[in-house]
Amino acid sequence: MSELAGWVDLVGTQPSPAARNTVLAMARALRAGTPEDIRLWEGPGAVIAVRPSPAATGAGTARTVTLAAARPAENGGPGTAPALAGAPADSPRARADTPALKGNRFSAAPAHKRGRADASGPAVEADSLGPVAVAAFAGLCDNRAGLPPASSAGEAVARAWLTSGPATPARLRGSYALAVWQPRTRELTLARDHLGTRPLYWARTPTGVAFASRPDALFAHPALRARLDGDALRLVLSGISVPGRTVFADVYEVPAAHTVTFTPAGRTARRYWHPEAAGHPHDADATAVHVRELLADAVAEQSGHAGVRVGSLLSGGLDSSALAALLAARVDGPLPTFAVDYQGYEENFRPHIVRPRPDSPFVRDMAAHLGSAHTDVVLTTRDLTRPAVWTRLVEELDQPRLFADTEPSMSLLYGAVAGRADLLLGGEGADELFGGFPWFHHPRWAQAPDFPWTPTTDELVGTLFGPALKELDVRAFRADHYRTALAELPGLPGEDPQERRMRELAYLFTTRFLPEQLDRAHRFGAATGIDVRLPFCDPRLVEYALNIPWSVKTADGHEKSPLRAAVADLLPRSVLERRKSGYPMTHDDGYDDTLRSRLTALPPDAPVRPLLATEAPRFSRTELELALKLNAWLERYGLTLP
Question: Are residues 297 and 252 in the same domain?
Answer without folding.
Answer: no
